[in-house]
Amino acid sequence: MEDSKFAVYSFIACILFLGVNGESPYRFFTLKVTHGDIYPLGVKQKGILINGQFPGPTIDAVTNDNLIIHVYNYLNVPFLISWNGVQQRRNSWQDGVLGTNCPIRPGKNFTYVLQVKDQIGTFFYFPSLLFHKAAGGYGSIRIWSRPKIPVPFPTPAGDFTVLAGDWYKRNHYVLRRYLESGHSLPFPDGLVINGRGWNGYTFTVDPGRTYRFRVSNVGISTSINFRIQSHKLKLIEVEGSHTIQNTYHSFDIHLGQSYSFLVTADQASQDYYVVATSRFTPRVLTTTAILHYSNSRKGVSGPIPWAPTFQIAPSLMQARSIRWNLTASGPRPNPQGSYHYGMITPSRTIMLANSAHYINGKQRYAVNGVSYVPPDTPLKLADYFKIRGVFNLGSIPTRPPSGNNAYLRTSVMAADFRQYVEIVFQNWENTVQSWHIDGYSFFVVGMDGGQWTPDSRRSYNLRDAVSRCTTQVYPRSWTAIYMALDNVGMWNIRSENWARQYLGQQFYLRVYSPANSWRDEYPIPKHALLCGRARGRRTRPL
User: Fold this and answer.
1) For strand 433-437 and strand 470-473, is the pairing parallel, antiparallel, or unpaired?
2) What is the pTM of this model?
3) Which PANTHER family does this entry report, sorted A to Z (predicted)?
4) Residue 382 has pLDDT above 90, yes or no
5) Domains observed in the chain
6) Quick check: 109 and 25 in contact, CB under 8 A?
7) Is the distance from CB of 474 to CB of 316 less than 8 angstroms?
8) For residue 22, what pLDDT is reported?
9) pLDDT above 90: residue 425
10) For 452-456, what is the mean pLDDT?
11) Cα distances (Å, whole numbers) of residue 293 to 211, 265, 284, 289, 297
């Protein structure tokens, strides 16, 4: 009865809160978060289940749908869930990271109210708190085009989700203690596909038909290469952008990234390996699933197909080959290419350099010499209630310092609504970096080796660079993006390497509008959880 009352109250609050979106359908989801025994690599572990499943259930939506997601925390520790790639237009209140939301306490619930405004594509949700991501708790998000919006490929015969990534046999709380004691994580024990190890998952296809494979790297430490034995991968979508439909034999997918491929079952009727291998690692990890032809009587055979392992050049060339489909419609009827991002001159350049340090004798990671420390009160709440002492704007420089020193701070960078910015990610380390920006998609206009300079702009792709939310930066290299700051809020910019994120390689970008209008940003939700120095304050009347 209590649950049903809570659901009714939440629905009423959501209608009032999102009344301006009343013309868009509402979809309701319930996610019950529990601990449970899982065996991804054949060893019993304490995993995080969503509705009793690992991975969790898929969230399906159509462009502009309003999603009412009731999350019940049955763990014995606080919990938060975030929505990787969902832009939360005007609504960073629902982002589900510690800088915007109070954790859901054990035995309590919270209702996320969000809209997939002007979005299509492949994304995923994941637990963002306490290194829970290493215990599972993730699932796929599929945002479908509206029925009258043309899609640049025939309707596939089926739609498969592939959630792949590295995995540790140690429980997540053991890994967290490694980090909190000042040590780096050990090397992963293996890879999983949809929560299963070697040949543990099967995709069944009919001969001659074409299927969509949505592949996300949900791991915490390594890039992967994805391929299907004897089959070609036709790239069609990257994190909400339709692409030029290039064909690949294998494809690199970095931490936090999502891609869609069309795969045609055009080979002899038997079973084939679906393969994921680690990239740029001292030891190559491999796992497989099975592509099963429905009329097959022959199991998998032959060697696992080859793919690059540590070579950077082919990965860089492949990344540069990903291009925006200018003539295809995105979430709206007009062609994607009608937005001429390359004809807009950025008003500001921000350069972000990652680095590794020992601070107070412990391993830390930093952005521009600042290693992020979570505050006692979510930044968004502190900003709304004007609570002093939680953070300071400008607490992280917009360019790397000249020295190699680093310090601990709750780092927040200031930015103005409707600015158009150039962000350069500079990586002087010997490992691949993967960067994600909440609340936005951006154009990856260039990437190359060495030091970025203003002359590097001569190599930018100002015509058909892909728009996405997560990008890689190769070792001792740079990646440049263009981004329109058209979404007011407090937005997390982070490493998708979860140990680096946990130990400080992240910060928040406060995109500010002085208008204080619902046109620019939704008000604080009536049912917002309050914690830290915001506890006891009032949100707002209905």
Assistant:
1) antiparallel
2) 0.95
3) L-ASCORBATE OXIDASE HOMOLOG ISOFORM X1, MULTI-COPPER OXIDASE
4) yes
5) 26-144 (2.60.40.420), 158-321 (2.60.40.420), 341-534 (2.60.40.420)
6) no
7) yes
8) 52
9) yes
10) 98
11) 12, 8, 28, 13, 9
